[in-house]
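REQUEST FORM: STRUCTURE PREDICTION
Request ID: SP-0412
Submitted by: Lab K.M.
Chain count: 1
Length (residues): 370
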Amino acid sequence: MSVVDYFEKPAFPKISFPFLPLSDLFGNQLVGDSYDVAIIGVKSDSDSINKGCAAAPDEIRKYLYSLRGGLKRLRVADLGNIRCGNDSVEASFALRDVVAELRAARVIPVVIGGSQDLTVAVYDGLKENSAELNLTVLDSRLDLSVEEMAPVTPYSYLNTILHDEKRFRVDVVGSQSYYYSESQQALLQGNDCWDLRLGKLRVDLSEAEPIFRDSDLVSVDMAVVRQSDAPGNEMPSPNGLAGEELCQLVHYAGLSDRVQAFCLFEVNPYFDNNGQTASLSAQVIWHFLEALSNRYGDYPVRDISTYKKVVVTEMDSNDAVVFYNNHLNNRWWMEIPMNQGRKIFSCSYQDYCKAKSGHLSDLWMRYYRR
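STATUS: Completed
RESULT:
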């Protein structure tokens, strides 16, 4: 069965804001074959409280197609919407198979949902071609259940991934502590996962860049954005990321040489205001693709031994902390001793500065404890 057999092709949407020459529009520069990126729509929300988010894929396309194309040599195809009606089980199986086949061909899927439990299907598709996986979720809440045998829903899907043997790391970025319980937080931390809350994140967005650089899958719940910027959700929050902040974080994800798939979920056109959330979602996807077209080809594509090696000796011992630096873009990595040998992880310049001053960063300690 061919990948295209899973899809119904969407009609080319009416361009909402035709300010650009038609030949320059993103929608007019899509390709039909030999592509690097595949856009996938999944119209499923049967298990969601946010009923109506199944209508998001086609609504987002109206705005995405009207943005500027010309993303260097990046070839993008829109495969359409998966044929599943609103059956979440059928949608998940189909999405898993499509993602697995696309990744086998080294194509990066960009999934537009639908509800966020579809993250599990994308994760399962990536597993078939990966030894271990890191997931980064942008969300205002922790979609975790404290029940041991929780079903896969938009509010408990992380349980399934936390218990998967190929899962190495899960990070939740942009969460707001009053939206989750202490038991949920304890469950996340007890599984060696990280919760980068909104307040700390907004102090310096660049501190999140190493998280995305080490991610294989990035999943966005648009409820991570404050209601004034993204009203299109049944449960919006007055606090959250600004629209441009989400675009910056997604830009980090696109620049990552490791990210294999990108997903955007929980946009509900029925609660939207003049297409504001759909338009922002289109811009978020565009920023991911634009960054993807400008990847550096850094580690793990490039051999870490080609970078500048910096050894910092701890003040209270003879142990050395090893860092690597690419001076061309000032990206940093650190070497962590682990049971299976020393491993390389992305880090920031601030992590290096802390080690140089005699202190190990939270990120270093987190990996070391594993």
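NOTES: DSSP finds eleven helices and 13 strands in the chain.
Reviewed by: T.R.
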